[in-house]
Amino acid sequence: MEKFIRDAIMSHMENNNLFTTHQHGFRKKRSCVTQLIEVIEDWTRELDKGNNIDSIYLDFQKAFDKVPHKRLTEKRKGYGISGCLLTDRKQRVVLNGSESEWTDVTSGIPQGSVLGPTLFLLYINDLPDVVNNIVKLFADDTKLYSVVNTNAEQDRMQNDIDKLQEWSDKWLLKFNTTKCKHLHLGNSPAPIYYMNHLTLEHSTCEKDLGISIDSKLKFQEHINKQIKKANSKLGIIRRSLSYLDKNIFLTLYKSIVRPHLEYGSSVWSVIYKKEAIGIENVQRRATKLIRSISHLTYPERLKTLGLPTLQYRRLRADMIQVYRILKGVDTIQNHTNILPISNSITRGHSLKISKQYCRTNVRKFSFSQRIVDCWNALPDNVVNATSVNSFKSQINKYWKDFNLKFVPDCYEPEAERNTTRRNGSERQCL
């Protein structure tokens, strides 16, 4: 029953364009990745121009528990949604057979329910409208950001923080000020911001929807964390099982190890060969766990197991994400500016993307820039596939003969696996 109600509400909100474009949580065609691509594209574009950016990461105090039912009802009616929801709910505590009195539930949305997240989206939907700068949302995960080069722009950012505080007080959804953070990107000194008469803590790295974003946008800290997590899971497999055959290994590796190395790969980028080698070495060590093939070289082990290199999978994931955006499978705000279609009449397919000039590596290795050459080189039958699954199949066939799948550009021979070079070649860009 809740699914019927949720679908009706979402259909009403989407068809009438009532949802803010900045909300990516619990909505079709939107995800953590689509939001982060929008944000990182904004940031790298401005950093490439030499601008500075301030981002305020906001944290609500038990957001889902604190939504007042009466205020939610008023907002729901404002969007043209009538009927009875969240009425006559009661709760009590049972401890060791003793029961408390029933009491009315006047706040909080039902957690673990189908309808709960949708109701929260309705409640927080107007938050981006109260500020002048940009607010991005994923359910209750909120960040405010803007270019800040002058004192006037700093004052405008502080004014937006004050407006968000006023919204919080009005709608009884309090911020946890001690957990709100300020991330500064750029070469200028980081300014100071205040919330609720407290100085916001300055951070050099923030975890944003599962991806660690550092102040230089090089993602080295994120990559190192994910390598550490993957190696930890690999250690659990090694210690728990004395014998691994091909099928057991592939099931465990694909489900609990590899996802740590690939989540959101279209958002973060591997700039240096050292990071690419570090990621690939996790899979190299993993394939050594199968004793029957441990004597083979890494490319030979991959062919035996039917595993592509992680470098290949990142490249393929980028191409799939481009296809999803251009074909409308994923919704990206201003996607025609992020991935502008070229007007060139030279040979190639009809969806070639224009290449832009980049001053910095941060911009050069951002999603919209690093994919251009590879995407434009694809044939027309691949980019115009009829579905995402068809695109995946077509690109696998096209790349089959290019030796991309099993031998990475960053491949390090087995004999050198225990040798850590400290020369400049380790830091070369891919």
UniProtKB/TrEMBL annotation:
Q: Which residues form a coiled coil?
A: none
List the Pfam families: RVT_1
Looking up InterPro entries in the UniProt record yields: RT_dom
The chain positions of domain Reverse transcriptase read 1-213
Q: Which domain of life is it from?
A: Eukaryota
PANTHER family from the UniProt entry: REVERSE TRANSCRIPTASE DOMAIN-CONTAINING PROTEIN (PTHR33332)
Name-wise, this protein is Reverse transcriptase domain-containing protein
Q: Which organism is it from?
A: Pinctada imbricata
